[in-house]
Amino acid sequence: MESRRLGPVVGLGTYRTFEDDAGLARDVVASALGSGTRLIDSSPMYGAAERSLAAALDGRRDDAVVATKIWARSTDEGRAQLDAQLRWYGRVEIEQVHNLVLWREHLPLLERERAAGRIGRIGVTHYSPSAFDELADALRSGRFETVQLPLNPHERDSERVLLPLAAELGIPVIVMRPFGAGSLLRSPPPAEDLAPLRAFGVETWPQALVKWVLSDPRVDVVIPATSKPERARENAAAGEPPWLGPEERALVERLAGA
Ligand SMILES: NC(=O)c1ccc[n+]([C@@H]2O[C@H](COP(=O)([O-])OP(=O)(O)OC[C@H]3O[C@@H](n4cnc5c(N)ncnc54)[C@H](OP(=O)(O)O)[C@@H]3O)[C@@H](O)[C@H]2O)c1
Question: To which H or E segment does residue 88 belong?
Fold first, then answer.
């Protein structure tokens, strides 16, 4: 089968970081793109983040892979969300059904738009283990080409069914919440505890967590969110091999208190 993989690479999330500040978004996006990041994830659920991202990509749209979402309680609302995205971005490389909301109903439109070339791939997302059975059913439908799910040393439910299933079906995996929405960064371990990870290019605790995620061979993209340009650079720097082995991953898990 032709490879459909997207990674392993570091992308950028936009939940609660861009808000309606287009200037901030421009600086963070410029830093991320300048550090080799391509995929940027957004959603109509993230306030004005989609609009801020569009402004930030003005003049450099071709440098980015836009992964956004349909989060709509009716097919009419879904159509309106897609129309706005096409005005902002011209095309959507990865269009995901957010939190499985009305996924069967939204698919016919998304599949027509993909056939017309305005959408690249169709994906699906959920953040909650309580929805993982339905997320697995959605993947088994054969109609999705990416899946977005949470994975970090404290949130590993996706390892049980979803990651093996995605690997079996050849569906690229995008990982949200690599820092547990920031909770894993509140009391970082002392710098000397990271010494065994230096040979893997890890200098900081956020980089250890990013690399922990990407070192799972079933993962394609990890999308940490930040509102700070220098942190976008720091996170992106963890997207290069060498990848961690089982011993180093176990160390990160211990340091995370998992
Ligand atoms: N589909 C879904 O259901 C769903 C749900 C959740 C998330 N997502 C996607 O996944 C993305 C990532 O998840 P998330 O935003 O919830 O959480 P996250 O990426 O795990 O954590 C983001 C937090 O980490 C901080 N941070 C980032 N880099 C840092 C660094 N190098 N040093 C210190 N702090 C750092 C950020 O604060 P600063 O801004 O201060 O740097 C922010 O508060 C989202 O933005 C969104 O695109 C999707």
Answer: helix 75-89
